[in-house]
Amino acid sequence: MEKNTSSSSSSSAAHVLIMCFPGQGHVTPMLSLAKLLSFSGVFTTFVNTESIHHRLSISSDLTDRRRLRFRAVPDPLTGGANEELDFSSKFINLQESMRSCSTEAYKKLLLTEELAGEWPPVTCVIADGILDYAIEVAGEVGIPTLVFRASSPCSTWAYASLRSFIDQGIIPFPEKCDMDELVKGMEGMEGILRRRDLPGFIRMAKSPEDNYIKIINGMNSQLINGKAIIFNSFNALDHTILPIMSSYYPPIFTVGPLHLLTKFYNISNEKEQEQEQEPGKNSCSSSLRQEDRACKTWLDNQPDKSVVYVSFGTVAVMSLEQFTEFWHGLINSGHRFLWAMREDMVKGKEEMEVTKEMEEGTKERCCIVEWVAQEEVLAHRAVGCFLTHSGWNSTLEVMVSGVPMICFPYFSDQIVNSRFVSEVWRIGLDMKDTCDRNTVERMVREVMEGENALELRSSAARMADLARKECGGKWDFSC
Ligand code: UDX
Q1: Which domain of life is it from (predicted)?
Q2: Is 26 assigned a catalytic role?
Q3: Gap between the Cα atoms of 68 and 118, Å rounded
Q4: pTM of the model
Q5: Tell me, what's the ipTM?
Q6: FRET partner for 2 with CA separation of 20 to 30 A, picked from 96, 278, 387, 438?
Q7: What is the pLDDT of residues 31-66, one digit of tens each?
């Protein structure tokens, strides 16, 4: 790659270093942000851990043109978490190991001559809101930081109300408490969240001192450490909460839906389309898994709006019992379904020989693959409903596609998202805390064929219009 010769003109140019948490749900939006920044002429260095670095390398001519490059910091993920630990301990261990093995490498990136020699020195850091060391270290070396949250504003605001929940004795949940009791003390969210809708780490806390509370306090404190907060969202979606949050936090910017913006500005390199989207083949896809494109042929043979697309993101897992209930519920609904089922999604999978037999009997009505190009699937004319865990990226992607949702949240922000989908945005149904074949069948029928189906479809279509309209004026490439 030729050196950037215009060093004098670039000496005052902006150079953003993006620090990304190594998880698909964070890589997807932050890589889109990096592409948009580089495309608008900002030098951008995307930093992730080695374990996923090779998947994100892009062809050098694309780099030259877009001023986008990749760097890695040591990868603590290979250390492997102790299976016996609960999620909160694993998460805290991960943060600690990232801090210990990545901080020095990250500090060097911020200050190193190598980067400064070819490009202007780093002028700003955009740090993932759960990478606490990234925000602290940038502060130590005097580089301003913007905090990026990969989850929704509504779930962030729910987490921010932790103190009030503890003071009111709402958490930890008393024995035999009414999970459907509405929670008070959330400005802008009165009458929306029940106990069961509080975000995962709050629901899981067993005492005001336990690890989940530590994680939440860490996430909340990072929000005020940056010069501004960036959400992958759009104002029409959070027009009630964002003004309230703005009176408590640094300036808040919504830059989403990011996946739509990168499409909107057609930020894709013609070579990307030609290349096999295989990780490691110089693709710029943010997918960390190989996408099965054969399912498109199956979809092409299905009638319009006849297919339920099923996917629970990259983190959620379910028991064999839950899987069996979802399977029978989908089969009994009589509708076609495409299930993107990660190989690690069902616990106790080894006893799952039933799937082959089940699949044999229903192969003309169902298609099971491990990983799909989700945005393309959601945009396909045959898809009439998305059965999802309501992770924030999936929620934004299905909103833009105008397809109604059925939400079965697994943890964290998903639990708030699913409540907003059903009660505030009214673009789907919330199956939270319920997993039986009758409920699955009933909800699929309601979204696909019931009298409510038309209302849900038009509500989802209206939301898609709002997202597209707002995207149109969002990104000014004149800078
Ligand atoms: C994680 C957290 O779990 C989630 O709660 C948080 O909001 C973001 O970080 P994840 O669980 O992976 O995310 O869900 P989600 O946010 O929906 O991101 C999944 C991404 O994987 C989406 O961009 C989706 O398009 C993509 N995907 C999923 C595929 O490309 N193919 C698939 O088959 C399934």
Answers
A1: Eukaryota
A2: yes
A3: 12
A4: 0.90
A5: 0.99
A6: 278
A7: 999 988 888 888 888 888 777 665 665 544 455 555
